[in-house]
What we know:
With about 200 residues, this protein is α+β, with helices and mostly antiparallel strands. The protein has one domain: 3-Layer(aba) Sandwich (Chemotaxis protein chec), CATH 3.40.1550.10. The protein is built from 6 helices and 8 strands. One of its GO terms (biological process) is chemotaxis. Keywords: Chemotaxis, Hydrolase. GO terms for molecular function: hydrolase activity.
Amino acid sequence: xxxxxxxxxxxxxxxxxxxxxxxxxxxxxxxxxxxxxxxxxxxxxxxxxxxxxxxxxxxxxxxxxxxxxxxxxxxxxxxxxxxxxxxxxxxxxxxxxxxxxxxxxxxxxxxxxxxxxxxxxxxxxxxxxxxxxxxxxxxxxxxxxxxxxxxxxxxxxxxxxxxxxxxxxxxxxxxxxxxxxxxxxxxxxxxxxxxxxxxxx
Length: 201
């Protein structure tokens, strides 16, 4: 299985930090409170172990917004919210007292909009850093077992998982941002990073 050097991991983490910083700023403006970010983690695992690598069980129920992107590197950008957190985020967004049933009805639309803004901000930041252009498909909402949502139509293979946790400071609602790329995309991504590092040297 492909492995990353420590230098490559550090560079990827730093770039994700920049991208997610832009995304967190956008989310902070939407909810009117500070968004706390964790240190990014970078790992390459078999696709079947993706849920475990993110820190969730395969059967854990999550709400997710997935956005497929293509360009010089490609993959799936996802926002994942453990059960219950997604509804609380919708409540924080709408800033209105609503019944759980009403919030659940609005969950898909509200989270898809949040996902669109956050994922595009993060991916757009990476594209700007590389002086590149990424193309995004429309975000899709999904709810179900984490293992099913992270599964790929093609089955096996290895994926690079970039994970960053974010938490709304006041309401203590959190989720994960992940970028999942197959090995060919990872190699293309690393080539971009190494070119960027050479230009910065």
